[in-house]
Amino acid sequence: AQKVTQAQTEISVVEKEDVTLDCVYETRDTTYYLFWYKQPPSGELVFLIRRNSFDEQNEISGRYSWNFQKSTSSFNFTITASQVVDSAVYFCALSDYTGNQFYFGTGTSLTVIP
Amino acid sequence: KAGVTQTPRYLIKTRGQQVTLSCSPISGHRSVSWYQQTPGQGLQFLFEYFSETQRNKGNFPGRFSGRQFSNSRSEMNVSTLELGDSALYLCASSLVPTYQETQYFGPGTRLLVL
User: Fold this and answer.
1) Residue B67, Cβ density class (10 Å: 0-12 exposed, 13-18 middle, ≥19 buried)
2) DSSP secondary structure letters along A29-78
């Protein structure tokens, strides 16, 4: 069965600190896709990244970076020098190789304190 | 370019009634996905439509249905509403099926069933 676990329910950091959000997934597929989304207080989901299972290269986009490790079935998300605008709920998700099934983690609520 | 729009934004219904929610994707996008978000179950995938065909469906009862029109606009319908259907319903559009492409989300429709 496929499953996404985000063990951190809530995290609080002081502005400018770095923070890592953990995501652990389970799947028997060899081809799959992993996603991260951000949901600010306004409620509208924002797509952040999609990664396929064959691409284990880390990705950096500005202050955001993602570490994908198949050996530990993890796809962690790091925000460097956090800002108040980063306060949101972050969701990790897993899709099978056809995109026919989609599974979300329970989300991590990040609060950045000024 | 206009974003994804969802109507109505808020809706109050009573048990047993039916409801239809609408989603207009970004111009040129042919894929529309629907998600349900509740405090208890979190984010769950409902279904995805691509070029007027349902590609896949999440684990929801038959009371939840949808369709997509030739202009890519999509509607989802919930019949015989139950209290547990109270949720934020999000729709997302993408150029091609979700797992292959960046998704853009609408603001959501918040449904309250009394």
Assistant:
1) middle
2) -SSEEEEEEEE-TT---EEEEEEETT----EEETTEEEEEEGGGTEEEEE
Residue B48 has phi, psi (to 5 degrees) of -130, 140
pLDDT tens track for A25-76:
999 999 999 999 999 998 889 999 999 898 888 888 899 999 999 999 999 9
DSSP tag of B41:
T
Instruction: Give A-chain residues touching B93 at CB under 8 angstroms.
Output: none
Nearest CA in chain A to B33: A102
Token pair for residue A76? Answer: 């962690």
Q: What is the pLDDT of residues B60-82, one digit of tens each?
A: 999 999 999 999 999 999 999 99
